[in-house]
Amino acid sequence: MSGRDMDDQVRALFDELGTDPPAAFRAGLRAELALAWDAGAPGEPLAPVVALAARDGSRRARPWPAVAAAAVVVALGAVALAARDRGSPDTVTAGPGTTMTAPEATTTSTAVPAPVEGIWPTAAADRSTDPDATARAFVATYLGLARPVSTAAAVGGLSATVEVAFLGDDGRPFAPMTTLSLARSHPGGTWTVEGASSPGIDPGYGLDHGAVLASPARIDGRANAFEGTVQIEIREDGMVAGQALGRGFATGSGDSDGSLGPFAADVAFDRPGRPFGAVLIFEDSAAGDGRLIQLAAVRVAFAAP
Amino acid sequence: MVATGGSDREAFLDLYERTLGPVYRYLRRGCAGQPGVAEELAQETYLAALAAVRAGRAGEVGLPWLLGVAHHKLVDHYRASRREERSRVALAARPPGPAAAHGGGAAELLGALPAAQRAALALRYVDDLPVPEVARRLGRSVHATESLLARGRAALRARRRP
What we know:
heterodimer, A: alpha+beta, 2 domains, 9-stranded mixed beta sheet, 3-stranded antiparallel beta sheet, 4 helices, 16 strands, 32% strand, globular, B: mainly alpha, Rna Polymerase Sigma Factor, Chain: A, 0% strand, elongated
């Protein structure tokens, strides 16, 4: 079977699923929307995290049972609506050049879900509800780099990606160094950097998010580091710029046309004191100006000693 | 959405009636046929639309806006599913789903795939996104995404084989 045939078959499988909404669902959601409309004063923003209690048992299980148990309760006029753990995006990009910001919710909170665990930050003082500020602080604190600037961001309710570049002396940004993946546990919560990716560095299969490392760890993949090297650092949670359990490098390959070539290195590292950490794979600027050309960062776990 | 004065409520509900079909069908395809998820995401999408209209942005809210919001809801769902899957297994091999043993229809076939493969396939074949864009939305490398897609296609091929 050709690749095109398989593509068509997969599309057909998905198309089979595109059924119309059941009449009961259509009517039920309409009634809920009408109720929600009537509950808000004209012209008054509706809190985006407000949702209606599950209508039936067909809903999927909540990802955070503890949150559901300590549900936020919102009173809108005479109607009390149980909030749920997921909400509308604070900012969504619905199309080119169109960015919309939803209003802040007015809630009485009885419990706040814990932030998503990730590469950074691990200290409460470093947490921020602004993805852009989180990205810039990550680059400054975790990577120890100056003059970072975020050049583009796509922010959803629970996840965001932020491109980071450096400002040149002329005030214009260089090409993006990396794209950070951020996540948060609930709308309005603080952001956590879960990983970083760069088109010029592809960590190998063994380095997917959550990979379990033991020393020495084989760090491999494909990268474009033409006539250069890729640097490798292994850190545990809580470490910042200048700290690492182990360091190494691999001779780069690839081609001047941007194609990727394989790299591999065995990196020994000290015994970690924490169960999780990160592997950083990056390429320094040959200009010696402290910039990074590209960076990939993967959250990993450490094998029990 | 075009509305005037006191007819805002009716205009919004009319928009809902006219657009629920395509929004729901998109979500059903995107979440691989899980009706509970599609319903929940549809509800969140229209609550977001209601909030936008309330905030005075009724002019922006139409089918393209709704599909854009629905897409973001799906990506959030994929990423949340991925985190849940990770928290359940520290990269241990995932046991095959029920459809692996029993075959079945599209929902069963796609539903039996690991969430990451299902998400990659949905973005590639429902949203028709190029692989680098699928990778960006999922926060993965292009290489890893290509691998996910290849494994997903291979699993579907194997499970459809009589």
